[in-house]
Amino acid sequence: MALPYDATPHARVEAEKPAAPQLFGAECRTTVTRSHVVAYCHNPYPETDRVSLHVECDRWWDIDSDGAPVDAEPAMTVRLTGRCWEEIRSAWVSHQK
C-alpha cells in the first residue's frame, strides 16, 4: 500500500539559528584642518583593533601616506595624525583584527 506524499511523516528538524554578529571595530572621528588630519579612534569592544590612518593629498606632486598601524586595545582611545604639504583630498581609517 502506498501513501500519498502529503500523508508521510516528516522528520522534525529545527532551523539553525543565525550566528550572533561579531562586535568589532573602533569608532573613529576624523577632522581635517587645511593640510593636517587628526583621527581619534575609541574601541568599546573586547578585541584589539589595529587602526591605521590613510591620507590622500590633493596635489599630484604631494605624497600620499599610509600611517603605521596602532593597536586600539579594549576601552582605549588612540590618536592618529597625518598631513600633506597642501590640501588633503581624503582621509580614512582602516581596521584590522
What's the topology here?
Layout: E1 27-33, E2 36-43, E3 49-57, E4 65-66, E5 70-72, E6 76-83, E7 88-96
Antiparallel strand pairs: 1-2, 2-6, 3-4, 3-5, 3-7
Explained architecture:
With 97 residues, this protein is mainly β. The protein has no helices and seven strands. The strands form two sheets. Strands 3, 4, 5 and 7 form a four-stranded antiparallel β-sheet that branches. Strands 1-2-6 form a three-stranded antiparallel β-sheet, with no helix packed on it. Strand 3 (49-57) and strand 4 (65-66) form a beta hairpin. 19% of the residues are buried. The model has no long low-confidence stretch (mean pLDDT 88).
SSE ordering: EEEEEEE
Secondary structure class reads: mainly beta
Per DSSP E runs of 2 or more residues, the count of β-strands stands at 7
Described by its quaternary structure, the protein is single chain
What Rg is obtained from the alpha carbons, in whole angstroms?
25 Å
For the biggest sheet, the summary is:
4 strands, antiparallel
Beta-strand portion reads: over 45%
Helix percentage: under 10%
The N- to C-terminal Cα distance equals 61 Å
Average residue pLDDT: 88
